[in-house]
Amino acid sequence: MGNNKNNRRKKRKNRHTVGKILAILQIVLSIVFVVVLLMINILPMKYLAIIFGILMFLDAFALGSQFTRSAHIIGKVDCVLMLFLLAFANVYLIRTNATLFSITSNDYKVDRIAIAVLNDDAAQTLKDAADYEFGAQVIGGSDKVEQAIVEASNELGQDLAYYNYDDPYMMVQDLYDGNVGAIIYNTAYDSSLTEQFPNFAADIRELKHIEIKTKVETVSGDKKDVTKTPFTVFISGIDTEGSIATTSRSDVNMLVTVNPNTNQVLMTSIPRDYYVQLPGISGEYRDKLTHAGLYGPQCSMDTLSQLFGVDVDYYAKVNFTTLRDMVDALGGVDLDSVYEFTTISGEYFVQGMNYGVDGSSALAFARERYNLPNGDNDRVMNQQIVMKAIINKCLSPAILTGYMGIMDSLSDSFETSLSQQQISSLVRMQLNDGDGWDMLSSRVVGTGDENTCYSSGDNVLYVMNPDENSVNTAADFINRIRNGETVTQDEITASMMN
């Protein structure tokens, strides 16, 4: 009898020991959860207090129940459920913190320099082409081309023979004509070269590419309290896939002006081919706005600040990978198209609402201009439609199921000069107030023309001459939003029709 009683006591003790271990694990995960929440700092204090109180109660019950005969089973069930819940929540929070750090701390850029020959050339390696005469690009990243030439020469153990070209289009034409055997150029120009030579991508073959990583100065932008002070962010959509650090043209150019006091947001789109001066770069010469991206976001910010006469405080840069992956993570978006049209890549859109558009199709919708009545003027309108659709989907329950996918898409293909603290404060303000935002859309227009561009040598390209009236009107709306005046979409729409 005595042995049986002792055995039962040992079994109960073992069961309680397991429960105590589970309770301690729950307390540890609760502490980790609270610490990460405090690090991210996105929750208002009232929510933090509630969460902290609930966790303390559940942790105390989980541990205390293991010292009782009647409640220890309920305590174990509570522990198991809480362990799963806390583990899941901690993964979300840690991923969020890592993403916020990643998108706000990028301090370098990557220039990808290609050494290429025609596709039917006999050379298969750089060594095979060692005695060729090369054409080398000397504008828009020429210092990186020179670094690549030095690296390639060192690899071969001999100097490369090359001609410098300040016109990349002439360089490619000379490759086609056989005047040079190979070219060395910054692949940031791939899209521009393809516009001039439609089969360029298929006609050439890379023998080697060299990636040159350069530390960059922090883009200007003070650390103002963005929950109280109006600000303007330059949104740049670069025309590359992969790493956001890769030097590229800025195909999407938008100023987003936010007034946190009036809860109004104004999106002002600017056509990529706007013919403008690039401050500090082009001098008295003009260039396409899209080419400002080749010189970094600060150049684009300065260009638009000069164009509109307004302060541009921060930038946010995304690439095609970001948009496609984010839309797919959200399960598609609904696009309200002004026109019925088919993109050059074959995607068809009806006039009115297009439901459940996937990432690749949304990207095609935002990039199309050739099959729209007003070309680039309509494209910037479609880009705003896509942005609004993404914002609306992010404010829906779809954000819960697509959260991790969104974090993955942002971490490697999005960067901003807003600090992690500023982003956290905006989220905290929204959670605390719960106010809706009045999203307004504006755009500037122009007339098509052909002219030489600073970044393209003597080659004549399609450009768009700015319409001064639309620029002045758009600048007025930006200033009114920043000054706290209430602006309506009807007012903006009426001004664009005049």
Automatic annotation (TrEMBL):
Read off the InterPro entries from this record: LytR/CpsA/Psr_CW_biosynth, LytR_CpsA_psr
Entry keywords, A to Z: Membrane, Transmembrane, Transmembrane helix
Q: Which Gene3D superfamilies match?
A: LCP protein, Periplasmic binding protein-like II
A Pfam family that this protein carries is LytR_cpsA_psr
Residue ranges annotated as transmembrane are: 21-41, 47-65, 77-94
Cell envelope-related transcriptional attenuator domain residues: 249-394
Indicate the family of this protein.
Belongs to the LytR/CpsA/Psr (LCP) family.
Q: What is this protein called?
A: LytR family transcriptional attenuator
